[in-house]
Amino acid sequence: MADHHGWYRTVLVFGEPGSGKGTQGRILGNIPGFYHLACGDVFRSLDPASRLGKTFLEYSSRGKLAPDHFTVQVWREHIHRMVQSCHFNPEDQILVLDGIPRNAHQAEMMKDYIDVILLIYLEMADEEALVTRIRRRALRQNRLDDADERVIRARFREYQAETAPLLNYYPSERLRRVDAGGSPIEVLHQVVGVVREAVSSRG
Question: What is residue 5's predicted lDDT score, i.e. its pLDDT?
């Protein structure tokens, strides 16, 4: 059950661009009792002709991240629609987020909405391997925003400056580090293990 504050029980999936956040989040979201929401998918679903869509494209086309207030606003509106349409039931499902919050300011803005029971950090030290992963994904999924290496490098710099410090924002006992260098099934084995531990310990 959701707690009395009405927060969404939440598992956050963190990692550098290309570390597999989306892959692991989607797999978790297919397990009964979990609902996956990727911030990138929310943005990509915006109508590019709409006001919000145009604002997002202004930033993404330069490899820049959308402003915090805009990002959290889009996320809140989307998650509200998912609850209203019964796609996400907070009473019975744990929310799995990747790509948001991306910094401490967003975390502060979201703290009245999410009850973070677990923070999964997908660790991968080899940045060149991550670049290769991202470019391969861009070709496979026709994600043009991922094809430009300059944009990719800009994302790494943004991640290190903004998102990496989030690992110190949440209580350390909720953080679990997972080696993201293996195959998706090997990483999944580790992810499922830490999720099972967190869910059982929180009842």
Answer: 45
Q: Work out how many domains the chain is built from and give that number.
A: 1
Query: What is the token pair recorded at 112?
Result: 């009245």
The neighbouring-strand residues paired with 177 are 121
Which strands make up the sheet holding 175-179, listed edge to edge?
34-38, 94-98, 8-15, 114-123, 175-179
CA 29 to chain centre: 12
| 201 vs 103 pLDDT, higher one | 103
Which structural domain range is residue 14 located in? 8-202
pLDDT of 135 over the 90 cut = no
Query: Is residue 82 assigned to a domain?
Result: yes
Q: Is residue 2 part of a domain?
A: no
pTM (2 d.p.)? 0.84
Residue 47 has pLDDT above 70, yes or no: yes
Question: Residue 22 carries which side chain, given as an amino acid letter?
Answer: G
57 contacts 48 by C-beta, under 8 angstroms:
yes
Report yes or no on 1 lying in a domain: no
Q: What is the pLDDT of residues 12-37, one digit of tens each?
A: 999 888 888 888 999 999 999 999 99
- The three-state secondary structure class of 113 is coil
CATH at 68: 3.40.50.300
Structure tokens that stand for 185 in this block? 């099934």
In a domain, 95, yes or no: yes
